[in-house]
């Protein structure tokens, strides 16, 4: 089994329908509008986000989040994964009635339990939500800058890329960068190459979440390769959300051939009927990647991980 790592997964998006149904039972909530026959129900990006938001409201306590993180990370470890970096959203916590401090503390406890049980290493990336606008994202950045946690090592932005411009969020990203957090941002998923270029110019990330639509501009692809910007590619997510009609059209192989550092991640695995193991299998069957190429994906993720040098060295030593 190829050793795996992932650097792009949303913790609320990692909750399986079975876990959400168990939570719903616990809180006496009807989730038949978002889960049918054991699967999440959504049809496009907007309804996906709505479904995701409703599911996240079933995680209401520190222990709920500890359970979610422990469950997800333990599943990843069983798939041969040694490292996971996942996005957290203090906005989702607050909407569910939880303080950001309790949210992060619960997740950290789940990470501790998973590490103790399986050896999996993990870190959190705080995010703001683009569709909440610049003030909301600044609020998320200010919170994490003022309340540092050793396992929160990055800052990013998720949400609806079709709303606002990257430059509108420059201040939020400056706050996070000045606090010592590493930077990634979702771009080039729902919007084309211009969105990636603007994100690079105004938010100065080390990595781009998705970034696949950079392929629409050859000069930008050259820039990504030259500057060593890492793309957090989530092929199953791109197919599920109809960013590409089929794997044959997916640009990962072309980006890789152009010298762009690409990685493999699962984004919101149960929403997209995938898993990290499935993403590696997809790369093998649809992109023709052999074990060595797949291990290169893992190495790229570990090299781009938002961890200290000693942790990175220890992870690299586990790649064989
Ligand atoms: N694929 C995605 N794009 C943007 N925001 C998200 N939040 C959760 N999944 C996302
Ligand atoms: Zn994402």
Automatic annotation (TrEMBL):
Binding site for Zn(2+): 8, 10, 186, 267
GO molecular function annotation: adenine deaminase activity; zinc ion binding
Active-site residues (renumbered): 189 (proton donor)
Binding-site residues for substrate, renumbered to this chain: 268
Family of this protein: Belongs to the metallo-dependent hydrolases superfamily. Adenosine and AMP deaminases family. Adenine deaminase type 2 subfamily.
Cofactor: Zn(2+)
Protein name: Adenine deaminase
Task performed by this protein: Catalyzes the hydrolytic deamination of adenine to hypoxanthine. Plays an important role in the purine salvage pathway and in nitrogen catabolism.
Domain Adenosine deaminase: 4-318
Pfam families: A_deaminase
Cofactor binding note from Swiss-Prot or TrEMBL: Binds 1 zinc ion per subunit.
Organism from which the protein derives: Oricola thermophila
This protein's record includes keyword Metal-binding: yes
PANTHER family: ADENINE DEAMINASE
Zinc keyword on record: yes
Keyword list, A-Z: Hydrolase, Metal-binding, Nucleotide metabolism, Zinc
Matches recorded under CDD domains: ADA
InterPro entries, A to Z: A_deaminase_dom, ADE, Ado/ade_deaminase, Metal_Hydrolase
Site (Important for catalytic activity): 210
Reaction equation(s) it catalyzes: adenine + H2O + H(+) = hypoxanthine + NH4(+)
GO biological process, one term: adenine catabolic process
Enzyme class, first EC level, given as a word: hydrolase
Protein EC: 3.5.4.2
């Amino acid at each position: 089994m190829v050793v795996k790592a992932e650097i792009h997964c949303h913790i609320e998006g990692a909750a399986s329908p079975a876990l959400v149904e168990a939570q719903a039972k616990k809180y006496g909530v009807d989730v038949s509008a978002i889960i049918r026959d054991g699967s999440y129900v959504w049809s496009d990006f907007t309804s996906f986000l709505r479904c995701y938001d409703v599911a996240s409201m079933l995680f209401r306590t520190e222990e709920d989040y500890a359970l979610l993180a422990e469950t997800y990370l333990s599943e990843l470890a069983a798939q041969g994964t040694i490292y996971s970096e996942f996005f957290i959203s203090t906005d989702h916590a607050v909407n569910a009635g939880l303080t950001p401090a309790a949210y992060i503390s619960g997740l950290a406890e789940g990470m501790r339990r998973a590490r103790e049980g399986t050896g999996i290493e993990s870190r959190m990336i705080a995010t703001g939500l683009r569709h909440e606008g610049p003030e909301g994202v600044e609020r998320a950045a200010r919170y994490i800058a003022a309340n540092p946690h050793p396992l929160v090592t990055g800052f990013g932005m998720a949400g609806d890329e079709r709303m606002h411009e990257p430059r509108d969020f420059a201040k939020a990203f400056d706050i996070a960068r000045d606090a010592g957090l590493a930077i990634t941002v979702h771009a080039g998923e729902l919007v084309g190459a211009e969105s990636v270029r603007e994100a690079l110019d105004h938010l100065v990330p080390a990595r781009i979440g998705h970034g696949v639509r950079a392929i629409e501009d050859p000069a930008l692809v050259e820039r990504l390769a030259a500057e060593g910007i890492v793309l957090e590619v989530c092929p199953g997510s791109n197919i599920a959300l109809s960013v590409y009609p089929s794997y044959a059209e997916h640009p990962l192989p072309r980006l890789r051939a152009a010298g762009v550092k690409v990685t493999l991640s699962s984004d919101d695995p149960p929403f997209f009927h995938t898993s990290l193991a499935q993403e590696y299998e997809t790369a093998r069957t649809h992109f023709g990647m052999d074990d060595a190429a797949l291990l290169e994906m893992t190495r790229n993720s570990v090299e781009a991980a938002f961890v200290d040098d000693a942790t990175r060295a220890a992870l690299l030593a586990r790649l064989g």
